[in-house]
Amino acid sequence: MYKLTTRTRAGTATAIAVLVLILAGLALPAVASRGAIQDLFFILTMLTLAQLWNLLAGYGGLVSVGQQAFVGIGAYAMFAGVILLGWNPVWAILLGGLAALVLAIPTAFFAFRLQGAYFAIGTWVIAEVTRLLIAQWKTLGGGTGTSLPREATSNILGTDLIRALFGVREAAARDILAYWLALLLVVVVTGGIYWLQRSRLGLALAAVRDNVEAARSVGVDAGRLKWAVFLIAAVATGLTGALIFLQTARISPDAAFAVTDWTAYVIFIVVIGGIGTIEGPIVGVIVFFVLRSALADYGSWYLMTLGLIAIAVMLFAPKGLWGLISARSGLHLFPVRRRLAGPKIEGGN
Amino acid sequence: QGAKIRLGYVSPQTGPLAGFAESDAYNIKAFLASEAGKNFEVIVKDSQSNPNRAAEVAKSLIVDDEINLMLVGSTPENTNPVATTCEAEGVPVISTMAPWQPWFIGQQGNPGDPASWKPFEFAYHYFWGLEDIIAVYTGMWKQLDTNGKVGGLFPNDADGNAWGDPKNGLKPGLDAAGFSLTDPGRYQNLSDDFTAQVNAFKAANVEIVTGVVIPPDFTTFWNQARQQGFKPKAVTVAKAILFPQSVETLGDAGNNLSSEVWWSASHPFKSTLTGQSSAELAADYTAKSGRPWTQPIGFVHSLFEVAANVMGRVSDPTKAEAIAEAIAATDMTTVVGKVAWNGAGVPPFAAKNVCKTPLVGGQWRKKDSGFDLVIVENASAPEIPAAGKMEALV
Amino acid sequence: MLLETRALTASYGQFRALFGVDITVAAGECVAIIGANGAGKSTLMRSITGVIRNEPGMVLHRGEPIGALSSAEVMKRGIAMVPEGRKLFPSLTVEENLLIGGQMRKVPGPWNLDAVYELFPILRERRNNSGTALSGGQQQMVAIGRALMSNPELLLCDEISLGLAPVVIRDIYAALPKVRAGGAAIVVVEQDIGKALAVADRVYCMMEGRVTLTAKAADVSRQQIHAAYFGEAA
Amino acid sequence: MILRLDNVSKSYGALKVTDNVTVAVPRGEALGIIGPNGAGKSTLFNLITGNVLPNEGRIEFLGRDVTRAPAMERVRMGVGRSFQIPQPFEGLTVFENLLTAAAFGRGGREADMVDACAHILDETELLKKANVVAGTLSLLDRKRLELARALATGPELLLLDEIAGGLTEGECKALVATIRAIHARSTTIIWIEHVLHALNSVVERLLVLDFGRVIGIGAPDEIMASREVREIYLGLEV
Amino acid sequence: MMWLDTLVQGILLGGLYALFAAGLSLVFGIMRLVNLAHGDLIVFAAYLVLIGVTLFGLSPWLAALLAMPVMFAFGWLLQTAVLNRVLGKDILPPLLVTFGLSVVLQNGLLEGFSADSRRIPAGSLEGASLDLGLVTVGVMPLLTFASAIAAIVALNALFYHTALGRAFRATSDDVVTAGLMGIEPKRIFAIATGIAMVVVTLAALYLGMRANFDPSIGPARLIYAFEAVIIGGLGSLWGTLAGGVIIGVAQTFGAAVNPEWQILAGHIAFLAVMLLKPRGLFPRAVD
Ligand SMILES: Nc1ncnc2c1ncn2[C@@H]1O[C@H](COP(=O)(O)OP(=O)(O)OP(=O)(O)O)[C@@H](O)[C@H]1O
Ligand SMILES: Nc1ncnc2c1ncn2[C@@H]1O[C@H](COP(=O)(O)OP(=O)(O)OP(=O)(O)O)[C@@H](O)[C@H]1O
Ligand SMILES: CC(C)C[C@H](N)C(=O)O
Ligand SMILES: [Mg+2]
Ligand SMILES: [Mg+2]
């Protein structure tokens, strides 16, 4: 007699638009320039990192300043797979996810003892420790870093096919492959987070965010939930890190564990866009990319503008740009509200 | 002719390495104004002293700006990501201002396994190597009366690992020249305490300190050494005292510190672009910028000399392979000396991609205001005149 | 009128806790506010003291609108509060807790450290203890003393008997007449109706964010209170 | 016995809030708890649900020692509770509040819980507001939601903390009817309430707490008649 | 002998870290503000002192003394105009704002002063040392340590023996109730940040005299400062000193084993303390 629905008109429209976008995205390399593909690669990987950080902080309440640990360890594991084990780089990316998982377990064990600001600093210290330890791994270049050997980069799985398909040079084929992988990753991560929110766990996350005490009292295991969120985010962050550095083909501890690149900018994206929503990071990454393209050649002025925008948004739109938009328009592109449909129920919202 | 030749240039214009880039604008202006520069367009990108960013902007120069040739300099942190990117992209790159070992070996997948090292197709580098450092440094030290015991300060970065490497770094060469090296181990840049090193040097009765140290760390070390009563006879380090501003920050304690010199106002070479001598180039820069000359000025200048020379000879400036061929065939004398990838003085594995420029040794002498860099050792490049003798610190 | 609220409303986020409350307190008067859990008594106190900010005209002090002032500004006008749950500063000793009550408003009046110690002699013995190391009743004494230190014209007491033993409650209530003797008006918020009626001149009863009964304490019947409390006659 | 407390004590610093409480509740009983403000009634609930752990003593539920078991485990075993100060998940709708409780308190797929939740909403007169965000509810509806959410966890033992406070007589009657109906389905109920006539019309036994101690337990009439209780609890002379 | 030296140098290094951390400890303790710009503020103050020295020819000490009121005013303004408006239960807005501030400061300084390494000249003091028999210690590190202690003694006196300090502690305990005492928490926060900036100026003086600085050097020591504050326990200034010393000593001992371990050892000491005492060595009754 009663039915549960989450469908809204905006949601259906979004779903169709997203599907079209994904298909267009897949076909894009046929028409787009390499520059566009690379820009999109950057946007997609940053978006993935942002969605993952949003999952942690926005949904899980875990404000980590140490996500660069997982980017870095994922990237290094990928390099190790290629250089030391002779794996094909595409498979070695998976090793990056595994390594991130292995690092995430002791990290969570330690960091979950800490609260709030302590948690933030604690995760940062762990990332530093990881960086310093990796910097002692002489086989992978220590503090110097290392590059992917050319036989590896020229033999990446699938590039031959892409070359044949689009008639492009090897380097361009590599870009296209990396772009597709980034597209896959962002779709899986964003879709996964959306699915998570619409699953039982999504309710649990929302409940814990609203009131931990009450959440426990209806049987939600807040502790397990934190673990789950942290580990999922770590693994996917590790995969993303591996993919990013596959594209760069060169790694060093400072680059792979850069707190500014992989955490500070990511926080910037999420918070400017609007934390706790799927739309927020998307808006944020667009703002970030536009700023970067428009201003990056102005050196320090670019960074100063970035800093000032961060301050201004926090002062005048603390819920981020998407918060501003959805407060005005009531728009939710990714609806998660479960509505009860049936007799005697008021319209409500 | 039609379209101009596009040169990409990645440079750390902001961030801690910005000192290397301070003459960029001056040199590029001079290049474009010169006869040879007319056919060129130079697109400069700021790496923000960040290796991630360096790789990124290199990519964007290649893909978006479709440059014909990449130029890069200013420490391995900047040259290596750019060179790696170019090599992977199949775009020729001329690189400088990094000793060739961290540049060449540092770009190999497994730096620890020489058997796996491979030459590059598109990446070419000119500067000097650690064997030259060894020759110059030992030449300077031999002018003094010491016990031959040397202490090394090598950080865990691209330079430090190359210099400190027990097989390919300074150690074997110093041994061969009759010096013994005490190396307490790699430290992290921006360490706040060097007691461990001072103690190790004292224990080993060290009289000479060497290394490749960033300026703040050197100041910290040198202050602590003096505070803890460690008084070496010579301190010969790279990087830390490269710029006169860094030496000035040491005050009196900067007097007679020594370092290798790769370019100076007294180098007897002329620019192929402007016809200026080294001295004129230095004086002109100072006149236009109000700042003292520094070693990178000559090398930034020379990058454009080489680029102009290569592109002048190339059969088809749009073909990467043709440009690489032209680079390999270079034989010219720039404001920093002879540049020719003929394999002279370079081990076989790197002979194709590395060419060496002359290196001498100098010592900072305090004058009324500021410091002078006086060349005190030129045995391996006698064409560069020496202006004094090495003096002991104590 | 010393204090007056006019159509006072207050919300926590989207949840509205007060729906147009009007009360008055005359100088020197003692008023009791009673009502069940969650009726909005504490919310009313918070609105008066500026912890929750309102429109200026919703709260008047001697005719002047103070509804939009910060709690510090309200306090400097002579309105002090003993908050629900005592809220002592754990980092401060007993004496420091008392001192801090008076340090921002220094006006002549009957109350100072000695006077408070005289009112609650036990506090003098415990003056160097951390405030939170005391028993509940002693903590309540500190909270009252702290509010008195500013020599307020109006003292708001939110559930000062909550969780205390009857003997202790007796002691604390015994202090209120002395406070009135010092010239201050008092508002006591209580769930314990008997206690409230015993000290008050007038009584307001609240239910679900509204005043449901206003009466002289002497006249009010149990029936009336019950009706106001629970909505209907028992 | 569905629940058994043996010499349970809890202190906050020097304050003993629960003092050596021993009580056993048979399956299917409705037990009322009364006592002055601050007597430790809510704390007793917190001890039973696992929101607070005792300093001493032992708690047994369905024959199992749960003294140290975490709250969510006890919910899944069948302990459902309402909070004295309503604690809805303010960002979720009324329906989602229940769905969360159902999905985690009982365990199961959301889709299978829809009818059960709708039924509970109907029973607690919240159905109309099923899709309203809980943060905007009135106090009365919040109290209803407390009850509804506790029911949604599928409790064997239902703990109700002052859910009648502030209700009108009519609302109160409806509430009593609802609780009776729940009780009739053989759910064990423990109910803290100041509104005695409502409480006494449901419960079979009454427990009196003062300063954390049990000072009386027995049939409501006997308890209400005892002088001690009248003095301590009904401070307002009756 | 060598171990004693390592210990002494580590303790002195801890003094430097404590000095870096003292201002942070103050704002973190009173308003739970995670100030990511703290390191850059130290560098900013160092340039201010440098201007006094090079432009006006003042002695470093006098220049620092004159910079202190300027920095106090700057801190006051910063808190009033920006930080007060983002403080709350959520730690993210202040985190992002101070990150923004950090980026703005770094790049603003770069525009203003270029990337050159600079130094506040301290003359003969730089290399001066004191022979204490068993160990030889530098005068400068000794002064740094003494200044750290002096700063902490002064701050403690302010905290525990003045009405302002009472207001600080009360506000830190409970903002709402402090308001009921007639205290404007925002004003208290502004004063606290102002005072923190005075301490920052002192730290800047020693940072600038001890080694080179350039606009980008701020964040490098920020993490040690945070570690020192957290090891010590929220709001405990002596705890912060202890935290600094623990990190300093761990670093020198780590380095004595192998310089590779220097910085790692400091971090590991922090992690170890957190594992044993998640709220620090000297936590307060309530956080
Ligand atoms: N900070 C808050 N956020 C949200 N709701 C609140 C908050 N404080 C109180 N409320 C709600 O406002 C309503 C009125 O609460 P208030 O504390 O004013 O009642 P009270 O009459 O003082 O009750 P008590 O006798 O329990 O102290 C209650 O429903 C309560 O749940
Ligand atoms: N977390 C806590 N820390 C310190 N004291 C507490 C805590 N929780 C409760 N108390 C104290 O324990 C005592 C009993 O509280 P409890 O909430 O159990 O009382 P109650 O009987 O439910 O009262 P009411 O009728 O007002 O709801 C009170 O004095 C209260 O202040
Ligand atoms: C990194 C290099 C460009 C610097 C060089 N090693 C020097 O002597 O300064
Ligand atoms: Mg209240
Ligand atoms: Mg209760």
From TrEMBL, chain A:
Subcellular compartments: Cell membrane
Membrane topology category: Multi-pass membrane protein
The entry's keywords: Cell membrane, Membrane, Transmembrane, Transmembrane helix
Any coiled-coil regions, as ranges: none
CDD domains in alphabetical order: TM_PBP1_LivM_like (cd06581)
Native species: Kaistia dalseonensis
UniProt cross-references to InterPro entries, sorted A to Z: ABC_transp_permease (IPR001851), LivM-like (IPR043428)
Transmembrane segments: 42-62, 69-87, 93-112, 176-196, 227-246, 266-289, 301-322
Name the UniProt record assigns to this protein: Branched-chain amino acid transport system permease protein
Principal subcellular localisation of the protein: membrane
From TrEMBL, chain C:
Keywords: Amino-acid transport, ATP-binding, Nucleotide-binding, Transport
Domain of life of the source: Bacteria
Entry-linked InterPro entries: AAA+_ATPase, ABC_transporter-like_ATP-bd, ABC_transporter-like_CS, BCAA_Transport_ATP-bd_LivF, P-loop_NTPase
Annotated GO MF terms: ATP binding
Residue stretches making up the ABC transporter domain: 3-233
Protein family according to the UniProt entry: Belongs to the ABC transporter superfamily.
Name of the protein in question: Branched-chain amino acid transport system ATP-binding protein
Automatic annotation (TrEMBL), chain D:
The UniProt record lists the keyword ATP-binding: yes
Keywords from the named record: ATP-binding, Nucleotide-binding, Transport
Entries under Gene3D superfamilies matching the protein: P-loop containing nucleotide triphosphate hydrolases
GO terms of molecular function: ATP binding
One Pfam family, short name: ABC_tran
Every ABC transporter domain range: 3-236
Matches recorded under PROSITE patterns: ABC_TRANSPORTER_2 (PS50893)
Record bears the keyword Nucleotide-binding: yes
PANTHER family from the UniProt entry: AMINO ACID ABC TRANSPORTER ATP-BINDING PROTEIN, CONSERVED COMPONENT OF ABC TRANSPORTER FOR NATURAL AMINO ACIDS-RELATED
Name by which UniProt lists this protein: Branched-chain amino acid transport system ATP-binding protein
Gene source species: Kaistia dalseonensis
Automatic annotation (TrEMBL), chain E:
A Pfam family recorded for this sequence: BPD_transp_2
InterPro entries per record: ABC_transp_permease, BCAA_transport_permease
Keywords: Amino-acid transport, Cell membrane, Membrane, Transmembrane, Transmembrane helix, Transport
Origin: domain of life: Bacteria
Membrane topology: Multi-pass membrane protein
Subcellular location: Cell membrane
Sequence intervals crossing the membrane: 6-29, 41-58, 64-83, 95-114, 134-159, 188-208, 228-249, 261-278
Recorded family membership: Belongs to the binding-protein-dependent transport system permease family. LivHM subfamily.
Entry-linked PANTHER family: AMINO ACID ABC TRANSPORTER PERMEASE PROTEIN, BRANCHED-CHAIN AMINO ACID TRANSPORT SYSTEM PERMEASE PROTEIN LIVH
Annotated protein name in UniProt: Branched-chain amino acid transport system permease protein
Organism: Kaistia dalseonensis
Organismal lineage: Bacteria, Pseudomonadati, Pseudomonadota, Alphaproteobacteria, Hyphomicrobiales
